[in-house]
Write a structure and sequence with these properties.
The structure is a homodimer.
Chain A: E1 6-15, E2 18-21, H1 23-35, H2 38-45, H3 49-62, E3 68-70, E4 80-82, H4 84-103, H5 107-115
Antiparallel strand pairs in A: 1-2, 3-4
Chain lengths: 126, 126
C-alpha cells in the first residue's frame, strides 16, 4: 500500500462494555434501512448474517427502545426496518460525525499530517 | 460495572498500516518526557519495556524525524527524551484532542447519551 497519511476520528458510544453506536453499526443501520432486511444488509456489507444479527441485537439491548424492528416469524429473509428511535439515532450520530470531520480541516491536523511519512521506515532490530 | 453511557472520540494518525500517533502513543510520549527514560515510562504506564520500545520504534519510523531520542549505549535505564519535533507533535495532538472534546458538549451528543441505557439488557437467544 502507498497511502497518504490520514487521520481517523471515531465516535463510539458505550453502554457498559457494549458499543451502543459506532461507525460500523451506523453503516449497518444505513444498510438495513436501504435493503429492508438484516440478511440483505449483511450481504451488501460483506458480513455474515450472524455477525449482523449480533450487532443489531447489541444495539437493541443498549438503547431505551430497539433501533431495528423485525417482522415476526418467517426466515432470515424476513423484513427489518429502523424504528423511529433508530432513524433519529442514526441521524444524530451522522451529525456528530460531521462535527468530527471539521477537525480534519484544523490547523493542528494540517501540521501533523505534514510531518508523517507516507510509509514507515523499515523496523530496526532492537 | 455500572458506568454511565459515554462517548469516546479517538484521533489516530496513520502512516501506511502503522499508527503514527494515537491516544496511547501520546500518553507514552508524556510519560517519557516526565520520567526521562523508556523503561521508567513503561513502568509508570504498567506496560512492558518491550511494548513501550515497539511503540517508540513505530513512532520514530513514521515521522519525518524521530520523536524520541535515546542516549547511545548503556542499558534499558539509559535516558530518553522527546526531540523538538516530538514535543511539537505531542502539543499539536493534544490540541486536536481538545477540539474533539468539544463534540462531547454538542447537542447531538446530549441527545444520544440520553437514549443509551446504563447497561445493556441481557442477550436473547437467536
Amino acid at each position: 500500500m502507498s497511502e497518504t497519511p490520514r487521520l481517523k476520528l471515531h465516535a463510539r458510544l458505550y453502554c457498559g462494555d457494549e458499543i451502543a453506536m459506532g461507525p460500523g453499526k451506523a453503516d449497518l443501520l444505513d444498510a438495513i434501512g436501504r435493503e429492508g432486511s438484516i440478511s440483505a444488509a449483511a450481504r451488501a456489507m460483506g458480513m455474515s448474517y450472524r455477525r449482523a444479527w449480533l450487532l443489531v441485537d447489541a444495539m437493541n439491548r443498549c438503547w431505551a427502545e430497539p433501533l431495528v424492528e423485525t417482522v415476526a416469524g418467517g426466515s432470515h429473509e424476513r423484513g427489518a426496518r429502523l424504528s423511529t428511535l433508530g432513524e433519529t439515532v442514526l441521524q444524530r450520530y451522522r451529525a456528530l460525525q460531521d462535527l468530527l470531520a471539521k477537525a480534519e480541516s484544523s490547523e493542528e491536523y494540517a501540521f501533523l499530517k505534514d510531518g508523517v511519512r507516507p510509509e514507515p521506515l523499515p523496523s530496526q532490530s532492537e
